[in-house]
Amino acid sequence: MDKKGNVVGMVSIKLSDSKMAKATGQIGQNVNFAVNDQTVKAFLDTNKVPYKTGGGFFSREKSNTDIAEEARKRTVLVECWK
Predict the structure, then answer these.
(1) Which residue of 23, 30, 56, 67 has the lowest C-beta tally within 10 Å?
(2) How far is CA 51 from the centre of its chain?
(3) CA atoms of 26 and 44, how far apart (whole Å)
(4) Which parts of the chain are beta strand (E)?
(5) 22-57 b/e with 16+ CB inside 10 Å = b?
(6) Model pLDDT for residues 29-70, shown as the tens digit of each residue
């Protein structure tokens, strides 16, 4: 989310802590791989998922702490199985 609450990307993969620890003896902190907003839109369009664009969730810019709290309320785990 940006400072106004617009979604600007989506995490798609998280680095495996166990594989990282085995390979390096260290655990990676906050290592994620994301796709940008255009990829998210293309995915939603392909799967006929309705969504709205523009405006953001907030009427004014918020601090990173406030954005993180708002993001927690709006974040869900999505898994696709074939």
Answers:
(1) 30
(2) 16
(3) 36
(4) 9-14, 32-36
(5) eeeeeeeeeeeeeeeeeebeeeeeeeeeeeeeeeee
(6) 777 777 888 888 898 899 998 987 777 777 788 899 998 898
